[in-house]
UniProtKB/TrEMBL annotation:
Taxonomic classification: Bacteria, Pseudomonadati, Pseudomonadota, Gammaproteobacteria, Pseudomonadales
Stated name of the protein: Transferase 2, rSAM/selenodomain-associated
Primary localisation category: membrane
Annotated source species: Marinobacter daqiaonensis
Superkingdom, taxonomy of origin: Bacteria
Subcellular location field: Cell membrane
Length: 240
């Protein structure tokens, strides 16, 4: 199957030498079907860019910041569909078939259900609630591999270049155009932040930040709180 129109996968990275090769190797089948893969490095101090080069179509360097990096990758992409993938997230084997169905649908954007890599029973509860919340609210997070038709993404001005909640903000705009195309085959995202920081503490942090954002808090202040919590525990991985 050759996916048409062309799909571009944009992966923002920062110091992901330990994961990027595995992530990109998992996309080899999609690349063989015509999918473009672009890695956007935010100034890694390790071998991320060197490891990514042979396994993707293009590596580009951007100013750091996940939203900024994703916008930079989208600007270089050739595809009519843009899919934004985190470096520690794996697409399911059925992704190509599912995305082909999206292309033929009348939906303008979408996301995958999510599965956490850890084996603990609590992770099954968390991932189920994450997918259900997204289905009910029409809001997705970056861990769910958001995809969108290029024309709409450009009309929306891309991701807002804010240091936190750029995915939630974009989805809020996209939701006004159409409900998301929900793919039930889950992406698998690394559960390290949940395992190291603790599931309930992580849930509390994320929901507290999201609630404050919905109440109008400045994302620049929220990211300070996020980084303070990260540095205070030494566990959560900082964002690119």
């Amino acid at each position: 199957m050759h996916l048409s129109p062309a799909i571009s996968i944009v992966i923002p990275v920062l110091n992901e030498a330990s994961t990027i090769a595995q992530t990109l190797a998992g996309l080899s089948t999609l690349r063989a079907q015509g999918v473009e893969v672009i890695v956007v490095d935010g100034g890694s101090e390790d071998d991320t860019a060197a490891l990514a080069g042979p396994l993707c179509d293009r590596v580009t360097i951007s100013e750091p910041g996940r939203a900024r990096q994703m916008n930079a990758g989208a600007a270089l992409a050739r595809g009519d569909i843009l899919l934004f993938l985190h470096a520690d997230t794996r697409l399911p084997h059925e992704a190509g078939e599912a995305l082909d169905r999206f292309v033929s649908s009348d939906r303008q954007w979408g996301r995958f259900d999510v599965r956490l890599s850890g084996r603990r029973a609590i992770f099954r509860v968390i991932e189920t609630l994450m997918s259900l919340r997204s289905r009910l609210t029409g809001i997705a997070t970056g861990d769910q591999a958001i995809f969108v038709r290029r024309s709409l993404f450009e009309n929306m001005g891309g991701f807002p270049e804010i240091p936190l909640m750029e995915d939630v903000e974009l989805c809020g705009r996209l939701r006004r155009v159409s409900r998301p195309f929900c793919i039930q085959y889950p992406v698998v995202t690394d559960s390290r932040r949940w395992e190291r920081h603790g599931p309930w503490r992580t849930i509390g942090l994320m929901w507290r930040l999201r609630w404050q954002y919905w109440r109008g808090a400045d994302p620049r202040e929220l990211v300070k709180a996020y980084r303070s919590d990260v540095r205070g525990t030494g566990n959560l991985k900082e964002r690119p």
